[in-house]
Amino acid sequence: MANDNQKTLENPLTRFPQPPYEKQQQPFPGLASKMNPIPDHGETSYVGSGKLKGRKALITGGDSGIGRAAAIAYAREGADVVINYLPHEEEDAQEVIRHIAESGQKGYAIPGDITDENFCIELVESAVKKLGGLDILVNNAAKQKSHESIADISSEDFDLTMKTNIYAPYWITKAALEHLQPGSAIIATSSVQAYDPSANLFDYAQTKAANVAYVKSLSKQLGPKGIRVNGVSPGPIWTPLQVCGGQPADAIPEFGKTAPLERAGQPVELAAVFVLLADTTSSYSHGQIVGVAGGYGHP
Ligand code: NAD
Ligand code: MG
C-alpha cells in the first residue's frame, strides 16, 4: 500500500531554475524582488518544527539572499529575528518582516551601514533591546565587486570590501559578546572563494578566507565559554550580490553552470544548514565550515 507521507524523490539538478539565466544587472545593493527569476528564500516551502523556539537572532544582510533564507527559517523554527540591511533595501526587508510575522514570530528591521563602527555597536544594542537578549548572531552581510585586474581596484573599493566583510563582523561580534550566554551560536558566511579564489575576486576572496580564520580562531576563544562558532561556505547562489557587480554581466546567464550540479543554488538550499548550526542539538559542532556549493569547494 502506498504511504501518503512518502516524499517525492527530487532531482537536485532540476529542482530549481537552470542556466541559461536572463542577463541582468542592478545598481548596488540590488533587490531580490527585481531579479529574474526571483530567488527562492523558502517563502512558500520552508516548514519549521520548533527547533529554535524562544531563540533571539540578529542576521546582517537579512533582507535578501542567504540572510533572508536564514531569517525565514529561524522564524518558522520559533525564533524572533532582527535583520540589518542598507536603507536602499527597505522594500526587500519589509517583505522579510512580513514573512516573520506570518510565521507567528516577532521580526524587527534595523537599517544602517555596517562599515561604520558606531552603527555596528548601536545595531547590537538595539537588537538586544528589541529581542530582550541575543543568542544567535549571523554575520552574513558582504560586499563583492568583480574586477578583471588588481590594477582596476581602487583603494576606496578595497577598503569598502574589507570594512564590510572583515571589520563589521569584528565590530558586531565584539559588541554582542557581553550579551551571549552559554548555548549561544555565532555563524559566519564565508565562501568557496576562501579556498579556490576566482581571478576577478581578488579582494573579496581574501575577505572570505579571513571569515574562515574568524571561525577557526574565535571558536578556540569562545568554546570554553560555551559559545559555538561555525561558518557556512556557499558556492554560486542566485542572489542580488551577483547581479549588482559581484559578477561581470556576461557571466550571469551561465552562473553556476560549471558546478557538478550544473546550476546556481537557491538561498533556500542553505536554510537547513543555518538552522543546524544554531540548533543546540548540534552542540558538538564547533569551529566548522559547512559547504553548500553544488559540488564545488573544499572546506
Ligand atoms: P545579498 O546581496 O542578498 O546579501 C548581502 C547583503 O549584505 C545585502 O542584502 C545587504 O543588506 C548587505 N550589505 C552589504 N553592504 C552592507 C553595508 N555596508 N551595511 C549593511 N549591510 C550591507 O547576497 P548573498 O549572496 O545572500 O550574500 C550573503 C553572504 O553570502 C555574503 O557573505 C556573501 O559573501 C556570501 N556568499 C554568497 C555567494 C553567492 O553566490 N551568492 C557565494 C558565497 C558566499
Ligand atoms: Mg539585499
TrEMBL record:
Keyword annotations from UniProtKB, A to Z: Oxidoreductase
- Identify the Pfam families for this entry: adh_short_C2
Taxonomically, the superkingdom here is Bacteria
Keyword Oxidoreductase part of the UniProt annotation = yes
In residue numbers, the region (Disordered) covers 1-49
**Biased-composition ranges for Polar residues?**
1-11
Q: Which family does it belong to?
A: Belongs to the short-chain dehydrogenases/reductases (SDR) family.
Designated name of the protein: SDR family oxidoreductase
